[in-house]
Design goal:
The protein has 15 helices and no strands. With 284 residues, it is mainly α. The protein has one domain (2-272). Helix 7 (102-123) packs antiparallel against helix 9. The longest helix is centred in the middle third of the chain and has 33 residues, at 170-202.
């Protein structure tokens, strides 16, 4: 931890990010909008019917859905320009001449780029007190949801950082990271529905409606889809996730943390200026 807080790159970028007035304005506006949406939803629901304790799970789903959409939209963009931006400013070579290793630079960039979105998520946790007040969710669900958000922030940040390391232009890197993130969030779900419905149409006798969702390939696709896993956190049982050998959020966390670590390690390797000579390759 002493080395973490004495890292000059982390200290420099943390000061630049959190000492600006823009960061506090963004944080204040974000909390105001989230609170206004939640209170407005509560007011409209109160007009239709009385608030019944324990039957207000929709508030929990509303806040969680808004936060996850914010994570999917912001996290890749925050890290997709970290390394490519250094290249465009022609400061990457200067950064590589410091005593920081390429992996330390990658890790420092990841921490500083995702620190602000982590603050946004943590600062909005008091809004869930409205849901606790009327019931509809448990502390265990909230803790699991925070862990789920943390895993997604780490993965999307690592994905954006990997694209920024591989691609020289920030704009292209951002678009590429959004495209890959779209595949994991939406594409895996569409692929899940397509394969399941296709098997039911081609071989209805061999794969009836209930049994087709128990195929291992569909279970793996369901485990990789964050929307399906988040639905399980809300108590919405989805076909492919039934009879799963372990909690879906646990399997999701293991796979995505492993992918994040792999992306970080590969990014650190790609950032090495002498990697081709090290492996005996010739320069192009």
């Amino acid at each position: 931890m002493k080395g973490f807080f004495s890292n000059p790159l982390i200290v420099k970028e943390m000061r630049e990010r959190f000492r600006s007035k823009k960061s506090f304005w963004i944080l204040g506006i974000y909390l105001f909008v989230m609170g206004a949406i939640l209170l407005g939803f509560m007011y409209v629901e109160q007009l239709d019917k009385s608030l019944v304790p324990g039957e207000n799970r929709e508030w929990f789903i509303l806040i969680a859905g808004l936060q996850y959409g914010m994570i999917c939209f912001i996290a890749p963009a925050l890290s997709a320009g970290t390394i490519s931006g250094e290249r465009e400013r022609q400061t990457l070579h200067v950064l590589l001449t410091t005593q920081l290793s390429p992996l330390s630079i990658i890790w420092s960039k990841l921490v500083t780029s995702l620190a602000f979105i982590s603050v946004l998520v943590l600062s909005s946790l008091p809004l869930y007190s409205f849901v606790f007040l009327y019931g509809g969710m448990s502390p265990q669900q909230l803790a699991t949801l925070v862990l789920f958000f943390g895993v997604n922030i780490l993965f999307f940040g690592s994905l954006g950082l990997f694209c920024s390391t591989c691609i020289k232009r920030t704009g292209v890197s951002t678009i590429t990271s959004y495209g890959i993130a779209f595949f994991f969030v939406v594409g895996t779900g569409l692929l899940l529905l397509f394969i399941g419905n296709l098997l039911r149409e081609i071989m209805p006798s061999q794969y009836p409606f209930e049994e087709v969702w128990q195929l291992p390939v569909l279970k793996v696709l369901a485990m990789l889809n964050p929307v399906v896993v988040m639905g399980e956190l809300f108590g919405e049982t989805i076909g492919p996730m039934t009879d799963f050998p372990m909690p879906p959020w646990a399997a999701f966390s293991i796979v995505y943390v492993a992918l994040s670590i792999g992306l970080i390690l590969v990014s650190g390797y790609l950032l090495r200026p002498n990697r081709k000579q090290r492996w005996g390759w010739k320069k192009a």
